[in-house]
Amino acid sequence: MGEKLVDQASLSPQTSQDRNRVPIGRALVVSLFFVALSIVVSVLLIIAPALLWSVWYDDNTLSKIKTFIRDSPSNELDRLGYGPRHVFGTAKHTKLSIPNPASAIKASRIYATKPHMAGTVGDLATAKEFLELLRRELGIIHSPPTNKLVFKAGSDESQRATRSVSKASAPYVWIDTYYPVMNTPEDRLLEIVDDSGKTLLGTSLVEFSDHTDPDASKYNDAVPTFHGLSRGGDVAGPLVDGNYCTYEDYQRLLMRKGNITGFIVMCRYGGIFRGLKVKGGEELGAVGVLIYSDPRDDGTVTNYNGYPSYPYGPARNPTSVQRGSVQYLSIYAGDPTTPGYPSYENSTRTEGSNIPKIPSLPISWTNANLMFRTLTKGDAFEGKHVRLVNNVNTRIIPIWNTLGVIPGIIKNEVVVVGNHRDGRVMGAADPSSGTASVHEIVRGLGHLLRRGWKPLRTILIASWDAEEYGLIGSTEWGEDFKDWIDAHVVAYLNLDSSVSGSRLHASGSPLLAHFIREKAEQLPHPTDTGRTLWDARSDTGKYTGPSISAEVFAIHNMQYSTVDDVGVAPLGSGSDYTVFLQRSGIPSSNGGFSATLFDPVYHYHSIFDTQRWQELYADPGFFRHVAVAKHLGLQILGVSSSPVLPFNATHYAFEVESYLRTVEQLASEFSIDIDFNALGKSINALQIASVALDEEKTKAQRDLRKLAKKWKKKHSKLQRFKRRLRRALCHIKNGLGRKCDCSHKDPGSVDSVAAWEVDDATAIGMLMHEIGDGELNVQSFEQHPKFPIDKLKKIVKRIQVANHKAGAIERGFISEEGIKDREWYRHLAVAPGKWLGYGATTFPGLSEAITFEKNVTIAQFEAGRLEKIIDRIVETIQL
Predict the structure, then answer these.
(1) pLDDT score of 832 more than 50
(2) What residue stretch is flagged as signal peptide (predicted)?
(3) Cα 596 from Cα 608, distance rounded (Å)
(4) Of 81, 145, 512, 820, which has the fewest beta carbons less than 10 angstroms from its beta carbon?
(5) pTM to 2 decimal places
(6) In this predicted structure, what is the pLDDT of residue 797?
(7) Cα 870 from Cα 684, distance rounded (Å)
(8) CATH code of the domain covering residue 222
């Protein structure tokens, strides 16, 4: 059959010796098997206790072992070389993918299509709307109904809500109700009268719009044109033109007129805070002040240059009026009747020393032209008097701050993010553009939370109220919880209006300047491919025209003239960072896009600040809204999730030297002979100490990186094997009736990240939290074999010390005695200028002793105060 048959006879029978002999190959296999088995058993005996421990207890330890495997959401650790490696990407990249124009437009249309002035029904509705956003995005499913989350300031519930932020283990939200004194408009009148008081020419104080802009038309008199916190009164007198009514303008007016007692002063908006225009007139004996919007300040975009008025074009509507507070902001912020303490419903109140004693009205360009007829030679109304009537209802009005917390690993270090919600009318730019950007930030943070992310530090999100009356919501909260802020808040990141024009501006504490710029440089320009967001600082509008006067350029560019060599301006006042920076020394930031002299006219605080104007002229497509959201979002992630806080102490120290150079120049200009030698030596010592501190921060960060790389390289090969063993043990655990959450499983989508997958910075933060306050058991972590816990603890401690010392520079400039004549402001390095309000004055006490007091003794005293306070800072930050 073709098969080869074996000859049975040819097979000789085996001997006993032959049967007992084992082939060499088989013996080798068996030997290798037992050797391998011995190795495996030995390895299991070594690592099994730790592996079993990690399964039968929580995932805390394993999370820490994975400290250096996951990506850090902080830019600082990104720079250490730990870029995206896993399928989910870094928190930073995920956060940047969430904000989008369609969502921002939708959010803006919620807030900017109806009036929501502070203390109104519409305002309360937006407070609740923002609360629901936080509740939805932060994943707060089981919580009381909204009306149960509205607390009276000063109540146990309100106190507990804020003071528990630094202890929170899960997100929660609430609304605080404060009770400041504010006012609302009643009868107002502006007319030209004869000597007997008879009306010769009346005016309409209502802004006019047709249905081309339906919101402006519908709500044109929903909030009458008036000044918040203005004095009521009925006065008449001759008119005098005060130009911008700056301190210098009033000085020139006195030289020209001798005195202005009994006059009504006509002031142009611009240059300084509107309240100080009223204050200047009051101090010189004026009986009233009118403030108007002058098309000369609109740059090239005017009717004169052929541009139609809004709503038919980009130029100013001649009936537009800028409302706003006339509080004396450079004296103190917040409720005028409770300076330095919170406005509870039953608070003891003062008369208020930061509000006018003479009436004022904001008026349109149309009405200003009519009033100027009394100053026009040959006009029928030349020399006639102007009558100003401003009746207001001043009373206690409730306001509502909405707040939400995202707990961090280091619970007692808090990053506060704030934007005010109240508008003068609809406020599409101010503040709803900022609210829309914050809406996108909250969505991004919510997305990260659903993925299992947790910040290193706690994040507190605040939607402030009554900012437009004088920073009231944030200030009252800041005064209410100053001790808690001092103990726990590491930074305050503010956003007011995110978009009203084409040019990016950035302001902040010198500690944060490099960080602010760095984050903007990491983002693309919102509308111009190939450029960065930071490059938008040089952007300008597209509307051309004849040359603009030097005076207008100078006034407009005041906001850009004080930037440091990094490109970030110092913070004065004018928004909700004020109480944090000026009272507690919290490093703060602010920014957004503002209008240039070549942009469509921004109708600030007018009925024409509408959603239509925003979508048609300010930010078509809402790309700038999204860019601001991403920029602030990166700042939030950087401060909240970086082990080393992004504070540049060296930059601050050298900025302080530039402040000294400025006052030296002022002293020379005013012929004031001051000895600055001791102050200069103190600043030099601050520079030396700051450089050493930053070097220590860099070394600690480098050591952390080395440890991370070493541990990762040594242990990453075991990770897959350990996961498999954990999976098997988990099934055994389930079989025994012990619940296992199987957190070793790989997530199936970006919304189901496993519990043990923590960011590098988060895991490091867990250690920092354990070492810092002892709430967790450090010893249990030490039980893991071969983990260099002692070495890591030393590095983490160095980082903690460096962070604290860097933050102490800003806090160190706080003086309990405050600034002369306006003691509410306590920051001796920077404050709103006494006659600026918005703009910052560096070394304010010393600068103003030279420029306003012109007093050598006072100036030398202020120089001594600075010397002592800087010496204390040096002592604090020295290593």
Answers:
(1) yes
(2) none
(3) 18
(4) 145
(5) 0.84
(6) 84
(7) 10
(8) 3.50.30.30
